[in-house]
Amino acid sequence: MLNLSRLCQCKQSLNAVQSKLLVSSRNGFSNSIISRQIITTTKTHRYNILGRLSLSSTIKSNSIIMRFCSSTPKPKTSKAVGYWLLGCSGMVFTAVVLGGVTRLTESGLSMVTWRLLGEKMPTNEEEWQKEFEKYQQYPEFKYKNQNITFSDFKWIWYMEFAHRTWGRAIGAAMFLPAAYFWYRGMLLPDMKIRVAVYCGLVAAQGLMGWYMVKSGLEDRFHGPSDVPRVSQYRLAAHLSLAFILYAGLLGGALRVLRPFPAAATLQKIKELKSITGLAHAVKAMTFITAVSGAFVAGLDAGLVYNSFPKMGDNWLPDDILAFSPTIKNFTENPTTVQFDHRVLGASTLAAATALWLLSRGRPLSPGARAAARALAAMAWMQAGLGVATLLCYVPTALAASHQAGSLVLLSLAVWLTHEVKLLKYIPK
């Protein structure tokens, strides 16, 4: 008689775990096992397992081994999914930097139409001339670029075309593998939800991009000081979606490539409470500071006070609350927007430094300790890039590096929070 209780060392009665029957093939077992009546005895009961579990309807192989267990190992997501998510996050990183360069070179309004599957690149002089004539019908040419040459127009058109094409490449890199992994059953239920959200964010990001560009094509620039440009609100929304998508993809990749232990429970550890809270705070502050940077870019606020640490001759400029109602200053007054960005940047730097100092006295893993050090170092580098960008009147190279630096800082914050959470899983 085959003693299944001894094989799996179950501690519960087999009748209570009928839904957790695991069947796997193994060479060396004959058909006679299937037809043999399997009976195990507990303290007070004797069960006929063959009749209760209807083995004949579920077992189709000729040789089997069976295990009854009170719990089963948690299935793992394929590493391929993790590398896919990591690759997509890298593409989003590149798109953010490319978008920043497109904005800094004032190329974003050169393409005045949008098609879901992409615009056709002009192939001859006649098609290029038609594109140029379309551009001449919109505010940026009428009020700002009346003297732009044909060759200069081609250059800014290429910049915007590259940004849009890269965005569509991200869509393909996201949707096609997602469909494949989903069809092949390589995504666990929680990862399916995450992937669905990622795909939704990619689609929303593309639509928001065109909605943003459209705001700069509208005929709403009539004042003597009006400059044709996209809405700072839509620019901030576009950048916010990119940062959320990037952080989500990176976090999802870490969950697969550095998974939380399956045979462990998540515990609250007193020594890590302050580290956890501060790490999440730095992550949130990095995101908020980056969004405020979008308002700086949208209003060209980096060009109003190019001095540091004071703003002109004062710590607090006289025109910081010049707009009415007061609330408008925080999103429409270039002086206030720049001041807010300075304060947020300094606050993020202070928090990242405090986090590093605090981590020195906590029981962290080598990975978590390295992440805390890198986060603090990057925060100081990012602050230096910001000050240099301001003092040099926002040159393209420095400004793009500053924007890329914000993503690097966010990446390190995501890594640190993941490493700290790993420490909280205690083996059973």
Structure write-up:
With 428 residues, the protein is mostly helical. The protein folds into 2 domains: 76-259, no CATH class; 264-427, no CATH class. It has 15 helices and 6 strands. The chain has helices at 4-8, 32-35, 49-53, 55-58, 79-104, 125-135, 139-143, 150-183, 189-217, 232-257, 270-298, 329-332, 334-359, 366-391, 396-423, and strands at residues 21-25, 39-41, 46-48, 64-68, 264-266, 425-427. Strands 1-4 form a two-stranded antiparallel sheet. Strands 2-3 form a two-stranded antiparallel sheet. The radius of gyration is 29 Å and the shape is flat. The protein starts with a helix and ends with a strand. Mean pLDDT is 84; it is low at 1-73.
Write a brief structural summary.
The protein is mainly alpha-helical and 428 residues long. It has helices spanning 4-8, 32-35, 49-53, 55-58, 79-104, 125-135, 139-143, 150-183, 189-217, 232-257, 270-298, 329-332, 334-359, 366-391, 396-423, and strands at residues 21-25, 39-41, 46-48, 64-68, 264-266, 425-427. The radius of gyration is 29 Å and the shape is flat.
